[in-house]
Amino acid sequence: MSAHEKAADGEVTTWAAPGRVNLIGEHLDYLGGPVLPIAIDRRTTVKVRRRDDGRVRVWSGITEKSVEFGVDTAPGDVQGWARYVAGTVWSLAQAGHRVSGADLVIDSDVPLGAGLSSSAAIECGVAVALAGMEGWSLDPIETALLCQRAENDYVGAPTGSMDQLAAMCGQSGHALLIETAPTPPTVEAVPAHWVADGYALVVIDTQARHSLADGEYGKRRAQTEELTGLLDLEVLATAPPDAVLKVDDPVLKARLRHVITETQRVRSAVRALSSRDWAQFGQLMSASHASLRDDYEVSAPELDLAVETALENGALGARMTGGGFGGSAIALVDAERVEALTEAVVAAFARVEFTEPRTFVVAPEDGAGRIG
């Protein structure tokens, strides 16, 4: 069955969408800036079977619970984990893609709350499953933006488009340079050869859980909106370096400094990635973390400890990834030093009585699609 051939009655098909790691460019996707994520080999799988009664029943292997709701669901109708599914159904309908009804079974090995976009993986996995079931032909970028709308307007998390674009457009062996300012955004695949060159990208899941629907993320959005108006800009990421001189408030000045320098770091990181200059790429990662910690103030003690320990144990670079306030850090390290780095991080967390972190290696993988 092709992606736009309607499923037969009773047919069960299986689809999947990956989590993502953002290599650099944090908190720029809602400010019109460039970001550089990869899709990873941690995925949400969605089994789907058509029904024609206008109902959606979804069972989660993560919670081992089921939820049922109508295809005419509206924001506020469904709460908890199932709102990511209901939001996707709602967003598709808002765009004129009404679902007849479906039974869905969802499972995932994308860690929840780890800053690896488990929510976008659910939304995109459900979207491609429903599109395949109904026989719709949806463009990957269009699908990503519909899933972003689900997260923004149904779930209530004011995220940018990076997570969903990474989940939909990922390419094995490539990072994605996403320019978020155009409408629609543009996505360019950039070869990422660190595995071939003997390096590994290690995710350090600190187990410090975060939620982008809570107050601090929204506060950063409000601060950057204030800056955009203050500087009379369409998108804040286009602010020139001397724009900080026009801002008196020290907190807003620091937020702007992160946006300006992080935008520059993404451009430099693309060049380093393309030339396979891993030392330079690592330095940019570490500089990004310092900016997120000191200027944007979205790090956490667990993230800072993970980064510091990784750098002390041979990493070329390390940084938090995702929205922050918990979640995961990433480190670029010689593949032969992965085990030693992992042991050092676990020991460092134990010394200060933090919850033991989980570590695993990731590499760039393909985006959402049918797997069975």
Automatic annotation (TrEMBL):
Keyword list (alphabetical) reads: ATP-binding, Carbohydrate metabolism, Cytoplasm, Galactose metabolism, Kinase, Magnesium, Metal-binding, Nucleotide-binding, Transferase
Q: Which parts of the sequence belong to the Galactokinase N-terminal domain?
A: 4-50
MF GO annotations: ATP binding; galactokinase activity; metal ion binding
GO biological process: any one? galactose metabolic process
The record ties this protein, via SUPFAM superfamilies, to: GHMP Kinase, C-terminal domain (SSF55060), Ribosomal protein S5 domain 2-like (SSF54211)
Q: What EC number(s) does the entry state? A: 2.7.1.6
Q: Does the keyword Nuclease apply?
A: no
**GO cellular component assignments:** cytosol
- Domain (GHMP kinase C-terminal): residue spans on this chain: 270-349
Q: Where is the GHMP kinase N-terminal domain?
A: 84-170
Which Pfam families does the record associate with it? GalKase_gal_bdg, GHMP_kinases_C, GHMP_kinases_N
Enzyme category, top tier: transferase
Q: Which family does it belong to?
A: Belongs to the GHMP kinase family. GalK subfamily.
The protein, known as: Galactokinase
Q: Which organism is it from?
A: Mumia flava
